[in-house]
């Protein structure tokens, strides 16, 4: 109740005061306040959105900022939420998580020129928008390579085992869009780097929060002999892990270290393609706090910048054969050095 | 056993015979109950979650994070508390008026159109493409707007109408139940629109599935600054409600439309072409759904994008709440619009998760709609003092 009353008072205050100080970040002793708008996968996806939430929470404890969350039900809500936060005198910066924000932010960044925006996974070219992109294909190559190496050998640990007779690794995507195609292309290229004849079935669930469909797709892939299935499908991926457990095979998580964020499945999550959305959010807030915010820039984060990468699942850290770990480190270095060219579309495979 | 049954029958009789005033009282009482139950629910769920500063600490239980009074107050101020909040409410109201009318029109003819959502999605796409195409050709002036906006609405209505006509034809000539066909056609409509936009008519550079933004001349300019609400659209929606009321209750065609759906054989015997009227009702219903989609594109989103909100499904609840009366749809749409915009404010300012807000909305809908729903069922099975067949689905 206290906070509300204070906010109301502050709001009235700035209404009475002249419009001159609107958008001025350091009026009075008020600390930075950030509006967070997530993607439609929503908080609790143990992946993309939760990573962003983690980043802002770290920023909160390190810099003493405050933040408000908004979770859109559909892309249609994003416009309203952006406008509400941007028009709110108590909000200094708005962080938009996910590519669906792009079209609305293009218009709103121009309309609310005094507000600083951060956009993850898409680019809006405006002076008050800082953009963060990831080279997901590089990280996906790494987990694809791991999957390819695993399916080619006989391996059993935790809640699963590979089928030595089959050489198949699967991919489950959320919606079939260029962004997720980058994951798919990198993953397949990585698997083929291990073994050119490997089978790589892939399928799309058509949604970011439909675990049932995710489970059906993954189950049929495991039935057809897949040893490992990698998902880039947000909340839909939960179904992939379920399927892995009941089939006794392996899965690869995405965005977060899902062997920890979805710890109930840590016995089958052999690795995760980590995408440091948390770092992106944290660093963007840090820049605003230090008055170093640079609108209009595009931060492109790949293996070299530690923006993406393969992280071994917590149950598998000490168990994976050393040669696999060495191979992964070698391919990581080769990608950074430019010796391996990772495709970012299926056409370039 | 039979005493219980008698009680149920007596209650149904009473519900069916309730006068307008009594039904209003029932609805208000239901609203109060829903608010009380919702308050308890909000309070209890606030005990479960963790938050840094609970408004109330209960020894042994923990801190309560959500204050029910604050939650309801935020909902009210979020929907009527400021000019922008009011604009947001009226924006939702306008759209729900059209979808609610769409469902009500079919209901009055005894047809259950679950397909408003699909009709709306295709109508929206038609309007968006029309606006994109015509917007380039017309001058950037009021004249241009007067050409392109009505054109968008008409195209949306025609496409929605045709999509509604399909299940009408299937019902009239192939005896396919409209509930099944309209549900299925929703999926087909979504699939067609998604595929078209993603692969052919949309913005192919974007990762999102969307069309380009329609030009300024095609956008219904907001009446209240900072919102996406146009008074003209609301006036058109109100005119549609009155027009449909007049059509169904004051004209011969309306009478025929009602009887054809309710008592096909009797209508045929009375010299009415019942099959054609079923098709007409569904087409009219679909056209209203299509208009809802057009207005959504021209007034709110300025483009077609995958993930259009479920206004078509909300329209079903709006219509039931209104007892399928076109005039009753107006207050029902206001209530739903207010709850929608209030829940956005709730999510933004108090951090109450959207799922809990949905539960609150659901409770209010459930409590208010249930007596009305039982009344309709009771009426269907001949309870109350006026028998069904003669009233042509009239509720007032």
Question: What's the SSE blueprint?
Answer:
The complex is a heterodimer of chains A (349) and B (396).
Chain A: H1 2-16, E1 33-37, H2 48-63, E2 66-70, H3 75-87, E3 93-97, H4 102-111, E4 116-120, E5 129-134, H5 136-151, E6 156-157, E7 160-161, E8 169-173, H6 178-194, E9 202-204, H7 211-223, E10 228-232, H8 237-247, E11 250-255, H9 258-261, E12 269-275, H10 277-289, E13 298-301, E14 308-312, H11 322-337
Parallel strand pairs in A: 1-2, 1-3, 3-4, 4-5, 5-13, 8-9, 8-10, 10-11, 11-12
Antiparallel strand pairs in A: 6-7, 12-14
Helix pairs in contact in A: 2-10, 5-6, 5-11, 7-8
Chain B: H1 2-17, H2 20-48, E1 56-58, E2 62-64, H3 68-80, H4 83-108, H5 116-137, H6 142-174, H7 178-201, H8 231-250, H9 252-262, H10 264-269, H11 274-301, H12 311-321, H13 329-349, H14 354-380
Antiparallel strand pairs in B: 1-2
Helix pairs in contact in B: 1-14, 2-3, 2-14, 3-4, 3-13, 4-8, 4-11, 4-12, 4-13, 5-6, 5-7, 5-11, 5-12, 6-7, 6-11, 8-9, 9-11, 12-13, 13-14
Walkthrough of the structure:
The complex is a heterodimer of chains A (349) and B (396). With 349 residues, chain A is of the alpha/beta class. Chain A has 11 helices and 14 strands. Chain A has 2 domains: 2-134 and 278-301, Response regulator (Rossmann fold); 136-275 and 318-348, Response regulator (Rossmann fold). Helix content of chain A is 41%, strand content 19%. In chain A, the strands form 3 sheets. Chain A has a 6-stranded parallel β-sheet with strand order 2-1-3-4-5-13, with helices on both faces. In chain A, strands 9-8-10-11-12-14 form a 6-stranded mixed β-sheet, with helices on both faces. In chain A, α5 packs antiparallel against α11 (322-337) and α7 (211-223) runs parallel beside α8. Chain A starts with a helix and ends in a 12-residue tail after the last helix. By secondary structure, chain B is mainly alpha-helical. Chain B has 2 domains: 1-66 and 352-396, no CATH class; 86-350, ABC transporter involved in vitamin B12 uptake, BtuC. Chain B is 72% helix and 2% strand. Chain B has 14 helices and 2 strands. Chain B has helices at residues 2-17, 20-48, 68-80, 83-108, 116-137, 142-174, 178-201, 231-250, 252-262, 264-269, 274-301, 311-321, 329-349, 354-380, and strands at residues 56-58, 62-64. In chain B, a hairpin with a 3-residue loop joins β1 (56-58) and β2 (62-64). Classes of the chains: A alpha/beta (349), B mainly alpha (396). The interface between A and B is medium-sized, with 35 and 31 residues.
């Amino acid at each position: 109740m206290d906070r509300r009353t204070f906010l109301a008072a502050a709001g009235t205050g700035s209404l009475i005061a002249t419009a001159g100080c609107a958008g001025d970040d350091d009026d009075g002793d008020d600390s930075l306040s950030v509006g967070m708008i997530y993607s439609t996968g929503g908080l609790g996806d143990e992946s993309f959105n939760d990573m962003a939430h983690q980043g802002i929470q770290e920023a909160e404890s390190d810099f003493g900022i405050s933040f408000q969350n908004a979770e859109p039900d559909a892309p249609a809500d994003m416009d309203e939420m952006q406008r509400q936060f941007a028009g709110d005198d108590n909000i200094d910066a708005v962080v938009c998580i996910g590519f669906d924000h792009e079209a609305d932010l293009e218009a709103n960044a121009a309309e609310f020129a005094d507000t600083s925006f951060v956009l993850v996974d898409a680019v809006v070219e405006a002076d008050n928008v800082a953009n963060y992109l990831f080279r997901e294909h590089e990280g996906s190559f790494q987990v694809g390579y791991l999957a390819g190496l695993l399916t080619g050998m006989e391996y059993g640990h935790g809640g699963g085992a590979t089928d030595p007779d089959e050489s198949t690794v699967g991919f489950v995507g959320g919606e079939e869009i260029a962004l997720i195609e980058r994951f798919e292309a990198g993953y397949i290229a990585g698997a083929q780097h291990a073994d050119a004849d490997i089978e790589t079935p892939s399928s799309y669930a058509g949604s970011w929060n439909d675990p049932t469909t995710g489970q059906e797709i993954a189950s049929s892939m495991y039935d057809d002999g897949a040893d490992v299935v990698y998902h880039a499908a947000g909340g839909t991926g939960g179904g992939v892990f379920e399927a892995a457990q009941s089939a006794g095979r392996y899965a690869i998580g995405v965005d977060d270290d899902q062997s920890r964020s979805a710890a109930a499945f840590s016995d089958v999550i052999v690795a995760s393609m980590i995408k440091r959305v948390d770092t992106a959010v944290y660093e963007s807030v840090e820049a605003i706090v230090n008055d170093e915010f640079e609108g209009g820039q595009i931060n492109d984060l790949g293996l070299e910048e530690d923006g993406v990468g393969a992280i071994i699942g917590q149950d598998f850290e000490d168990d994976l054969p050393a040669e696999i770990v060495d191979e992964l480190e070698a391919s990581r270095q080769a990608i950074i050095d430019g010796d391996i060219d990772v495709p970012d579309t299926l056409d370039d495979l | 056993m039979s005493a219980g049954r008698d009680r149920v029958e007596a209650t149904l009789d009473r519900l069916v015979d309730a006068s307008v005033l009594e039904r209003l009282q029932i609805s208000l009482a239901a609203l109060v109950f829903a608010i009380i139950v919702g308050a308890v629910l909000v309070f209890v769920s606030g005990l479960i979650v963790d938050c840094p500063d609970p408004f109330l600490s209960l020894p042994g239980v923990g801190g309560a994070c959500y204050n029910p009074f604050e939650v309801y107050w935020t909902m009210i101020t979020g929907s009527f508390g400021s000019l922008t909040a009011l604009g947001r409410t009226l924006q939702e109201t306008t759209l729900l008026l059209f979808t609610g009318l769409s469902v009500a029109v079919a209901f009055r003819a005894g047809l259950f159109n679950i397909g408003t959502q699909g009709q709306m999605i295709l109508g929206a796409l038609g309007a968006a493409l029309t606006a994109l195409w015509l917007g380039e050709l017309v001058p950037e002036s009021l004249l241009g707007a007067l050409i392109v906006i009505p054109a968008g609405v008409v195209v949306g209505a025609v496409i929605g109408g045709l999509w509604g006509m399909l299940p009408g034809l299937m019902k009239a000539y192939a005896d396919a139940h409209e509930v099944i066909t309209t549900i299925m056609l929703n999926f087909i409509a979504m699939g067609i629109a998604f595929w078209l936009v993603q692969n052919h008519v949309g913005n192919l550079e974007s990762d999102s599935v969307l069309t380009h933004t329609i030009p300024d001349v095609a956008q219904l300019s907001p009446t209240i600054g900072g919102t996406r609400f146009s008074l003209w659209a609301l006036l058109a929606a109100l005119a549609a409600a009155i027009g449909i009321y007049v059509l169904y209750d004051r004209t011969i065609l309306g009478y025929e439309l009602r009887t054809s759906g309710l008592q096909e054989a009797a209508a045929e015997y009375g010299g009415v072409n019942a099959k054609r009227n079923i098709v007409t009702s569904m087409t009219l219903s679909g056209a209203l759904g299509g208009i809802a989609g057009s207005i959504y594109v021209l007034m709110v989103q300025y483009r077609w994008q995958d993930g259009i909100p479920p206004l078509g499904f909300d329209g079903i609840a709006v219509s039931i709440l209104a007892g399928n009366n076109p005039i009753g749809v107006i207050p029902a749409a206001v209530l739903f619009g207010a709850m929608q915009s209030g829940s956005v404010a709730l999510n933004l300012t108090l951090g109450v998760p959207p799922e809990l807000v949905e539960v609150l909305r659901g409770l209010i809908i459930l409590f208010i709609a249930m007596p009305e729903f039982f009344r309709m069922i009771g009426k269907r099975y001949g309870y109350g003092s006026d028998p069904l067949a003669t009233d042509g689905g009239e509720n007032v």
